[in-house]
Amino acid sequence: MITDCDEARLITMQDRLVPLLTVERLSKAYGAVVACDRVSLSLYPGQVLGIIGESGSGKTTLLKAIATHLPIDSGRVCYTSTAGQALDLHELPLPRRRQLMRTEWGFVQQNPRDGLRMNVTAGANIGERLMEVGGRHYGQIRQTAGLWLDQVEISQARMDDFPHTFSGGMQQRLQLARVLVTSPRLVLMDEPTGGLDVSVQAKLLDLIRSLVRTLQLSVILVTHDIGVVRLLAHRLLVMQGGQVVEAGLTDQVLDDPQHPYTQQLVSATLVP
Amino acid sequence: MTSTAISPSPVSTNSLLWADNLHKRFILHAQGGICLPVLKGTSLKVKPGECVILQGPSGSGKSTFMRSLYANYRVDSGAIWVKHGENRIDLTQCQPHELMAIRQKTIGYVSQFLRVIPRVPALEVAAEPLMELGLEAAAARDNVRSLFRRLNLPERLWSLSPTTFSGGEKQRLNIARAFSVDFPILLLDEPTAALDAANREVVIELIEEKKARGCALIGIFHDEQVWQRVGNRVLTFGREDETALGESHE
């Protein structure tokens, strides 16, 4: 039978998009325990990549290794900078790496107390980051901080209050403002809605979702919550025992899970 | 990076979508590795302006087939060639970011269900695909408003989150969301299931307009009156044969 495409050459599609981040065969062990076993992934601009897996699956280690918060045993983390340079992050001189992390990257901690400075005011938490990247004008910094409080739906009247007087959900929103104020291109989030009430979670998720869209952020999001990735992630990696056992578009992985572990994870979730 | 198979547009064909010999089985690991073969060599070609109806008893695989055409389900073997821009691309070989681009520009899908985003107004939900294509927000909203009007979605609902919408209201929102974009290929999964007679008529009109513009449609319709009117051909599941409408269905 002669088919439509028989005569067609198969050629390699030129990727019109250049990945923002490429992780190649990244491995990291703690003694005999392999936390990440030859993990590879790529992230394209404007995409949200979810990483799910239970505690101990290596997902947080992977995130920290990508952020160079941890040394790695082997592999590469390659980042394409605003200037279009491909940078091997773990080989980069420390000052240059730090500068990148301050300007082009952001990291949202699971516990807002780890991501905020608890002994300075909400306004200062945001303003401090601006000063790190060269902001000098007090009035402007304060004004920008106020705008960001609006963005994350915290009243500007709370600008001079300390974060410990905030609820958990507010602290997490403040951390988002602190991270996003410098307009990073890539944001890494570790269980950003963990430990919050369901109603507070929904609001935060919705906020993250709209910020990701309006700011065209690329995000890697680690969570064990399938509802969170359903709502936020375009793509999904499933990790078990340090390995990526399944990957694809979020709806593919969740609607047609193939690996036994993913099937178990999906069927164990209460359908909302 | 693995490569994606694409081919320069062959002159020998004008079909927009060509599913070739699709096989799909489900393996349920939690139930002793039970294997359910659902698609066993299903093929289909759809040309511009055609509407193909998927028919068959429930469980016969028509939904699985349709979901495979959207790459929501991943087939075990076979190819799904789709005309994407000037190229023909095999969906089964695409990288996730390529699939995202194909879903943005080439294949639209009207599902029976709406995955509700809390707090986002209906108008914004429906205008999202157009805005992702780079249309200005005001133009995208105008486009959606006119579809909402045609589908008789009460104006007081437009600024509300669809969380509290009825089934029929959600369905009309879904239809507006997918029909606002000029997709060359549209997949319709029971788009009229929750609609009253008047709105069903509107959807039939909208489908006819898409056909006139050269869109290739594939639909599952519960309502025989609807598919008899919009369908050009029927692909029957369970029996795995394809018939022209009017030949075997009198």
UniProtKB/TrEMBL annotation, chain B:
Signal peptide: none annotated. Residues 17-250 form the ABC transporter domain. GO terms for molecular function: ATP binding; ATP hydrolysis activity; lyase activity. Keywords: ATP-binding, Lyase, Nucleotide-binding. Pfam families: ABC_tran (PF00005). InterPro entries: AAA+_ATPase (IPR003593), ABC_transporter-like_ATP-bd (IPR003439), ABC_transporter-like_CS (IPR017871), CP_lyase_PhnL (IPR012701), P-loop_NTPase (IPR027417). PROSITE patterns: ABC_TRANSPORTER_1, ABC_TRANSPORTER_2. NCBIfam families: CP_lyasePhnL. Belongs to the ABC transporter superfamily. This is Phosphonate C-P lyase system protein PhnL. It comes from Vasconcelosia minhoensis LEGE 07310. The lineage of its organism: Bacteria, Bacillati, Cyanobacteriota, Cyanophyceae, Nodosilineales. The gene is phnL.
